[in-house]
Amino acid sequence: MVFKGRITDVIYRNDANCYTIAIFETDGIYFTVVGYLSELTQQEIQISGKTVIHEQYGEQFLIEDYEYIQPTTLEDIYHFLTYNSIDGLGVKTVNKIIDRFGEDTLTIMNNDIHRLMEVNGIGKSTLKVIEASYSKIVGRQNTILFLNKLGIKGKKVSTLINLYGDRVIETIENNPYTLFFDVKEMSFNEVDNIAKNLSFESDNYYRIEAVIVHVIRMELVNGSTYIEKENLLNIINEDYGLNIDEVEECLDSLLKRGYVRIIDDKVFLIQTYLTINAIARHIKRIKTNHSDVNVKSEVVYVEQKKGLTFSKKQASAIEKAFHHKISIITGGPGTGKTTIIETICEIALDHSMKIKLAAPTGRAAVKMKNPSFRDSKTIHRLLEYKFSEENSILSFDRNDDNPIEADIIIIDEVSMIDIFLFEKLLAATSDDTILVLIGDSNQLPSVGPGKVLLDLIASEKIETTTLDVVYRQGSDSVISYNSNKIVSGETALIEEGAKDYFTMDLNVNSSYKAIEALIKKNIPDTYNIDTFWDLQVLSPTKKGPLGTVELNKFLQSIINPEGVEFKHGSRIFREHDKVIMTKNNYNVEWTDRFNHEKSKGIFNGEIGIIEEIDAKAKEVHILFEKQKYVIMKYSEMDLIMHAYAITVHKSQGCEYEGVILAMGNVSHLLANRSVVYTAITRARDLFMLIGDKKLYNYAIQNNKVSTRNTFLSNLIVSYFENDF
Fold it and tell me: What pTM does this model have?
């Protein structure tokens, strides 16, 4: 179906992707259209598409393609020239041009623009200004249509025009794979389809280079910092059918041009290599500077003051924290890490030292706050992040030239930190600052690339204390005991008589019934746990019958079944829903619920509750972490998911009074010891497995997780053994 007409009113527009709901007029008939319109204009356009039925809003016309129609009537020509604000053309001049050329005005401007000098008041200099501005407008329209026909729409159109200017079409026609290298929002598959539409051959030199980089990037997504050259060549040969000799030739070209680095047949993207190399360099720099703070007597004083008795390892960890510029303390739950942080803070304050506490997530940072020192931040806030939405660039004000002002920095949950954030932290740590790194090396590795904590320990170049004795929780608690058994792969766990650890071997349907009974009756009646904020349902996976997607639908139906709501995609959000931010939103503004101060940034993993849905303003009011009050537009809700159930990965760095782990039909890749260990160590007072107990036991015994090739420990060793 094809119609010619105009957009007369815009009902809704997402500025991020240019998705638009509008009223379209054609021959006096008005109807609703939806689609991705890169640029709104009063100019007549031709739209093509089909009629669709929206379950809430009824019949709409879905625009699949559109093109601009050159105005032909005098009225349309006048609107076109005045609406587009062409330099050198005021209203009076436009009227003069139309009076002179009539309906041929745009034909003359397109084909023989110099004839405008026939109009009184337009000389050579004015013509030059008009020509440049008009060409830019027409060129932009042609560029938008060119990109739209290639499937490039929305925000990406603006990105490409800003990046390449008037060379967009030329750049893409010459080498579409340039987009893959230059525009991070464009995936290899997307660019590859564009190249196919432009008739590029599959063995084109540009494509082979893009395939190489794509395969290495996929390794990065999976956590590795490099790929073995032989493996790279085999994957490209088998999966993409490309000749190995040609691939090696292109790889050599990428190496010479600085896109990749190859060491001992290990292939890195250059930025990744520079990052881990910088980490190794900073580690040596920081460690080389010695600390002369002796706190042995003060450790004894804290013991006497608080009635504590530190083990030799605990006391040693505290002393090393002051005696070395960089040290690591690792251990599972209940081994005393929190007490050690408190003691380090207390002693540091006695020495008038300036302290900074930080962790990768907001929840982990809150958990660090202690009686001696109440201030803790996310690492991003510690580094004073800045985010440019225009360029999608994250930067930090704290760096080599402007280091963090602190005598001692304590970082918790280090296992969650990827190589890129860790390098920024080290760069901002001055030679005069003590750095204490704390974490649990048995937890899941970071979502981003690398295995920072494990590599630091493996290098054996940093003073490390491993705490292996459980002290936390009462004698009748078995969570910590069982979690330590799980580390060893033991499935013979204490359960009989336990008050905080339970397993229920159930099929999927029975699992749902059990979860409902636990949340609505059993846990509230037996435990002093707030089932909204302090009880968390976890799953190893998003997919499957016991994955977070299906669990959230079910849990919403029993916890918050009705109320003010709106539908966003396939999700229904209601007032009082429990939600989670799924991606760092650096620029969203929030107001502190308590002191009413304003700040920016809600981070991946922060939990909130929807307090109000304003249908008229199309806004959602969310309170995150019981403190940060945010007003988000409907269009921003892509970043929000329900949080009645979250993945084990999302729960890292958090602690809950109670945890329900739902497990069933999970791929063996996700059924592993680290997943189970991370899940159980999130629970402080209650842990319950609901689902397939056989799979649960298999996971405990399965220590085969996807291997991460990192090379960081090798580089650290090299820096210490060689004079760099």
Answer: 0.84
